[in-house]
Structure formats: C-alpha cells, structure tokens
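Aggregate trends can hide what the representation actually does to any particular protein. In the encoding step, the backbone of a single protein was reduced to a row of integers, each denoting a local shape. The record that follows shows the chain in one-letter code together with its fold in token form.

***
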Amino acid sequence: MEEAYQNIEHDAGEPDALDDLMQKIAEHKGCETTGSSGKSSCGTGAGANDLAPEIWEKVKNHPCYSEEAHHHYARMHVAVAPACNIQCNYCNRKYDCANESRPGVVSEKLTPEQAAKKVLAVASTIPQMTVLGVAGPGDPLANPEKTFKTFELISRTAPDIKLCLSTNGLALPDHVDTIAKFNVDHVTITINMVDPEIGAKIYPWIFWKHKRITGYEAAKILTDRQLQGLEMLTERGILCKVNSVMIPGVNDKHLVEVNRAVKSRGAFLHNIMPLISAPEHGTVFGLTGQRGPSAQELKALQDSCEGEMNMMRHCRQCRADAVGLLGEDRSAEFTTDKIMEMEVNYDLESRKAYQNKVEEERIAKVEAKNAELETLAGASSDIEILIAVATKGSGRVNEHFGHAKEFQIYELSTKGAKFVGHRRVDLYCQGGYGEEDALETVIRAINDCAAVFVAKIGGCPKDSLRAAGIDPVDQYAFEFIEQSAIAYFKDYLAKVNSGEVAHVVRGDADIRQGAFVPV
C-alpha cells in the first residue's frame, strides 16, 4: 500500500468536512484552461461550470479525457484481447520491450478472471486509479467475449471504476448496444483517414465477413464502419475520443479533414499522435524508413485543428498493459504471479477518502493558478514562449533534471499557461554521472523552449542549457507548475520590456518560439 494511502486523514470522510469539500469540487473550474479559440476545451481542460453535469462526472477524474486530471489520477489497461481484425503499417504486436511505451505491446496476456483480480489488486494499491481500459494487444471488439466478460466481472466487484475500450472501429457498429449495456461510457476509436486512397497506404488488409480484403475496398469499408460506429455511440451519449496517428507525407495534411469529419459526428476529443517508427520494432513503416513527425510539426497540426474541437495534448501512447499515471508504467509490480500471491482488500470507502484528498490538492492547484493569473490581468503582449517542465506528477515541478525521462511542455502568454504536449528524452543521469551524449539529445528535444523548470539541476547541464538559449529554472522546485509558469512569464515580460532580456524568435519555418537571451 502506498505511504500516502496509509496516511489518509480520515476526517475528510466526516459529513461536514466531506460536504464542504464536495461543494468546493462542484464549484471549482478544475480544467478551465482555454484553447487558442478562447473556448473551453476538455482535452486541455474544461471544468465543472463549462460542461453539462453528466459530462463533467464522466471526465473529472478520467486522466485521458481531462488534461488536468492526468496530473492526479491513474489508469490501467488489461491485455485480454489478443486477436485483431485489421493490419496497420505502424503496428507490430510481436515485439515487446518492458522499457518502451507503444500501443499493442504487452508482456503477458490475461484471461478475464485474471484481469479482474489484477484490477482489484491495482486499485487497492493505487487508490487514485480510476479508469480501467481494454486496449489490446489486438482489438477489443475482435475479442468481444473476453472483453465484455472482463467488464462484467469488474463492474460487479469494483463499481466505482470507469470502464473504457479502444478500438479500430471495424466491428464497432455490431457492439454498440452491448457497450451501452455494460455502462462503458468512454470509447476511443483510431481513425487515421476518411479517404480510402490514403487509407490504402496505411492498412494492408482488413478481415471482414470471414475473408481478407485489401486495398481501396478494405479502407472504404473501414472508414465507413468507423464513422457509423462513432455516430451510433454519440447518439447514445457515450463519450468518444478519436485517436489519429500523424504520418508525414501520408496523412498529415489529411488529418485536418479527419478532424472536421469526427467533429461533425459528435466526437468529444481528438488526439493526434506522432507515428512511432523505429526500425527495431519491425513495423512496415519502420522498415521502409517512414519518419515520424517532429514535436514542432505535431504541435502545428494540433494547433491548426484546435478551435471548436477539443484536442488532447497529453497522450503517452500507452502499452496495452500499462498501469499508473500517464507517463509512468508500474505494470512490472503487478505480474500475474505477483497478483495471485497478493491478498486483496478492496476498500471502497478508503479509496473515496483518498480521492477526496486528491481533489483538495487539485483545488489548491487551480486556486493558486487563478490567483497568479489575476496578476497578469490587463497585460498586453503578443509574446508567446514555450517552457519544458520536469515533473513526476501532481501538477508540481518535482523532478530532477537528470532523472527526467520526459518533459511536459507549456505555452505561456498573457492568457496564462497552456499544456501543449510532452517530449520524451534520454536519461541524462547514469548512476551518479552525467552522460554528455544524452544531454545533447535533451537539448535538441527542448531547443524551442525558452526555459526548463526543474526541482534540481547540476552546474554542468545548467551551463550547457544557457549556451543553447534555454534558461534553467530551479527556483520553483516543488511548487505548482501553472502558478510558477505564470509567475515566470510575468517576470520574463518585465525583463523584455526593461531591455534586460532580448526576446528572439527561434525555430524552423513557421514554427517559432521565444528564447531567453540575456542582453
């Protein structure tokens, strides 16, 4: 059991204290960051007052459907669905490395009964785990008996956990009624095209009505079924997230059309993800040299699709057996052998009490951000900068620079701090010493950022970052990210206006950001 769980202050569960807390939760706009359009966006974080109450209840503690929630709440996937009914040029489910994060990858497959036991074990150990998803390693709806048996067992033994599934959509229209029956109110559909000519470049074949179909015909069937399934789900009030893989030169420009198509059919959230195409994964795209997009290209496409459509920026392209907060994977702690030896005590009331404490922290974070944002009221400037943040979660600057495996990226302007993505990096600290080659890759990964926020950093990387025009900032160690980012930006503007700092534009082509350059 986690130490924090053991040290719950149980007075949060007393009637008066609990009523007061829940009133604050209902009132606070926990995800009120707005997109470039000025409209609230749940992917980048709408709050209680921005959404219908029934929608807010579905997303407020769902780490994939709320950017703010992903700092605080965990998810898990159970690998009960091995078969797949399509082939994608970016997928190879035979390859597995415990150190990687990639959809379709698992270390062990589970029966529904094993999955149910694992869910109880994880939820008892990680009380902020609120979401259970079936995402593979094949397609959940190509394995309907196993998928829905899993949901049946979990809904019976852990009724507070949200149920999700992720599908390619080919079989989706056949199972919408069953999805609704099991109260699966979050469904992700991977839609990479609405033009079969483009789809034929992504999908070699589908297995449909007991035969293999290839080429244009296969892609046409797939896109028709995907869009039909999306419409059927949204008509029933089921929240739908659409995943799209950005493949430069194949569908990158076309994804704007995909965005319009899924928006018109009621999709709640659109998640445009970068192609993963390392040759060692053995995928068609990896072996043919198809490159993935740069972080800047991905952000530009996401920005172009953002408006009325909610965009997800915090996806980690999770394994099909991932456990923990987004960006971490604790699945090695919960192998089948370990689970079968565990005594599981699923205490629903203690889970609720712990999550109430999480909400208190969440409210404090939002209130601190809003208070800092008020100090920017009336400021006028066209300057926008990116910053990179080293964090372990909870919305705080709480990771050592050398220990960071990824950086969260925020865009700062007079509107506030907006989460826009994350960048995976090579680990700089290697057993007590810094790896210079790794430092170079880290700098390249965040070279469009004006600053990097860290809990701690050594002198050598500080000098290298400054030489690259990146300001190493450790003054906000263990503070809330957004509050600290706004305070930094306010100071940055003051230094620019006084001439102490020169704001220069850096980046490639039309993808440019400010850099911290002392005068």
Notes: The radius of gyration is 23 Å.
